[in-house]
Amino acid sequence: MTNASPEAAPKTASNAVQYQVKTRAMRRYITFYSLASLGIALLWGSLLAILVPLQVQGIEFHRIFTGADSGVDLQALTTLQSKVAAGTVTPDPDQQRQLGLLAEFNSSRATSLSIVSSVGVLLGMLLAPIIGLLSDRTKSRWGRRAPWIAAGGIGGTALICLMPVAPTIAVMVVIWSLLQVLVGVAQGPLTATVADRVPEARIGVVSGISGLASYFGAIVGAVAAGSLFASIGLAAYFPIGILLLLTTMAFVLFARDNTSREMITKPLRFKSVVKSYGVALGDADYRWAWISKVLLYLGYGISSVYSLYMLQSYISPALSATQAAQTAPLLQFAALPTTLLAMFVSGRWSDKIKRRKPFVVAAGLLMAGSFLIPFISPTLPAMFIQVMVTGLGYGTFVVVDQALFIDVLPDKEAAGRDLGLSSLGQNLGNALGPIVAGAVVGIFAGAYAPVWPIAFVLVTIASLLVLRVKRVR
């Protein structure tokens, strides 16, 4: 096999492109892998946490509050609602009418955000195993994964630039869904390069470094989006798109893969594509890890999808939209120390003692317990405490769970396909989370409180299911 880079040589003649990478090349790989992970995480942190919810909220506000009501102060109206609920104020007829509009607005924006958030995730979920399968088989001078990473970065950037002009929820659903699919085209093969190119003994460390980059990117993205929105509104989408393009292309160009032109593959048949959705699920250990991941991200998605709205409509005293956009990133910053600590310690510790399950179980239970804090105390300080405790759990989980999945891969030569299925599990949880949360908020007439105990139950179950994995300690 011909090498595209003199720094990495194939270990075997296997169809899978495996590597024994020199130290300098490994450092460069880790650097640019982390940067690409950072760029993708920055996109999710800025768009999912700030810009998309604010855009949905703006569209729904202008649809519901029309005419003389178009200048209503939502913060003041939410405060009035709290006083009416507490029995300290009796609203006049006009206030009562506006409170009715507020209830409709709270329910409508929650439902619309759940639709916008979920449709694209569902599409990405269905396509992830196919993308992984095709990336396993791609022949190019740039290797198996690079063409997909480049295509996803370029296409995703183009669609980000279309987001600000979406005039309706329906148009947002189309653009955002295609955007999520294209970013998945880059993200899935990028993750598969870890199984391709990182020695087994260093997988936990690399997962920790990339997990740190991903988490830091989400925080920076949220902070940047909140600040940019306050000054340039929805034009804040544009710099996010540019960063996605720069970071993904930097990985493709500067962490070059071996050529895969001479790789031998069997003809691709439709039957094998269909089987790609569930081949790995035939393995019991992989199946339990996958089900656990779905439930954990389902609970996590339920608890986090409405963070921006909870700051405006759940906690007391309520914040304005601008205050919420600036406060939401601070919540993520509050979680940074505990998350960093968990990421630094868990990956190395897990590699050292060669254990995965205790870390994943403890991480899930910590996350589950944190959801009860704002349920008991619906205040801003409680929200800060909750994210700090969640940081310990999530920081551990995001590092060790990736290593656990690599450990239980049924077929190392189909890492792209089976890690794509792992991403499918995460995406399924992320897709169902907003749907379930939207249904809960709708059932309870715009109330956000019930999402917390539901998230607690789901993540607790997810944590305990990991104990069913037998092949990994």
From TrEMBL:
SUPFAM superfamilies: MFS general substrate transporter (SSF103473). It is a multi-pass membrane protein. Keywords: Membrane, Transmembrane, Transmembrane helix, Transport. The chain crosses the membrane at residues 30-52, 115-134, 146-165, 171-191, 203-230, 236-255, 294-315, 327-347, 359-377, 383-406, 427-445, 451-469. It is found in: Cell membrane. Residues 46-473 form the Major facilitator superfamily (MFS) profile domain. It holds the Pfam family BT1. Belongs to the major facilitator superfamily. Folate-biopterin transporter (TC 2.A.71) family. This is MFS transporter.
